[in-house]
Design brief:
With 126 residues, the chain is mainly alpha-helical. Helices cover 64% and strands 10% of the residues. Strands 1-2 form a two-stranded antiparallel ribbon. Strand 1 and strand 2 form a beta hairpin. The longest helix is centred in the N-terminal third of the chain and has 29 residues. The radius of gyration is 25 Å and the shape is flat. 0% of the residues are buried.
């Protein structure tokens, strides 16, 4: 029994050191402001102020920062990600299907996005 503990303890310590410790430090630093000063850095605890700034913006005028017009490539990228996730879910749920059923929705989406972009750009000056 003691031999098992002695053999497992170094592995457990390595896992804790390489995964749990950085997670705890990252969580602490998310509640702090880090300033780089001569000879090192200074950590000042600010509480939830970092999260408040992230959601309301630095000037506190807008919720979730400032939103502008979403470009067509942004919509295309978002749609590709959604279709990829949905098709992955369908493919995983039905493992008897071929890879063609996984790729066709992506191809159709890309073609539809290209057609919509072409239709939307008609009549505009470059």
């Amino acid at each position: 029994m003691i031999a098992r503990i002695v053999l497992l303890l170094p592995g457990i310590l390595v896992v804790l050191l390489l995964s749990i410790f950085p997670l705890i430090i990252s969580l602490y630093l998310s509640f702090a402001r880090v300033n780089f000063v001569k000879g090192g850095f200074q950590v000042v605890f600010v509480g939830l102020q970092n999260y408040s700034t992230m959601f309301t913006g630095a000037d506190k005028a807008h919720l979730l920062g400032v939103w502008g017009d979403i470009p067509s490539y942004g919509v295309l990228a978002f749609a590709l990600i959604v279709v990829l996730l949905l098709s992955t879910f369908v493919y995983i749920r039905r493992p008897g299907r071929s890879i063609i059923g996984y790729v066709i929705p992506l191809v159709v989406l890309v073609l539809a996005a290209v057609v919509l972009e072409m239709l939307g750009s008609w009549g505009t000056t470059p």
